[in-house]
# Entry
Amino acid sequence: MIVLAAALVLAPGTPLGLLTNAVQALAGVLLPSATVFLLLLCNDRAVLGPWVNSRGHRGRHCHFNFVVDDPAVVVLFPGISEGTVMIIFVTGTILAVGVIILVKFLSPAIESTSPVDDISPATLQRVWRMPPLDQLAPARLTVLERMWLCLLRVYLVVAAGLVLVRIVMLATVGT
# Structure
């Protein structure tokens, strides 16, 4: 990757401004997915033990943490107005809250119990080590979490596709 990047930068006629903007747009598209997986990790008691997010940080479940990706929208559609971005954001938020409420009423709550709950928090924080990966139980995702992950996949495919289309459009117009 480093050699490829160096070759691109050193090649004569490479549109470095386009390349820089493309990398930034792609980073903006990938940020929400990285944030979602980080939140899932931070809320996993089996992995973090006493260092897991408290209920105050995550609400009842981690899906109440929202991620907004306005920079990618603005890069993909530079002529879009602030009002339109706000309408998209508000509409998405209303839809997300509606889905959360709907699934909350349709699926039973899953309470996790862990053998580490019987030890005092101070002692556990001093001695906690994450178990080896092969000893961790598979993640038990709720219906809502599975749905959000499917929606995240769709978002990544569509957003990455739009970024690539935009890059190709800018590259062909510039030549």
Remarks:
- Residues 21-174 form one domain.
- The chain has eight helices and no strands.
- The radius of gyration is 21 Å.
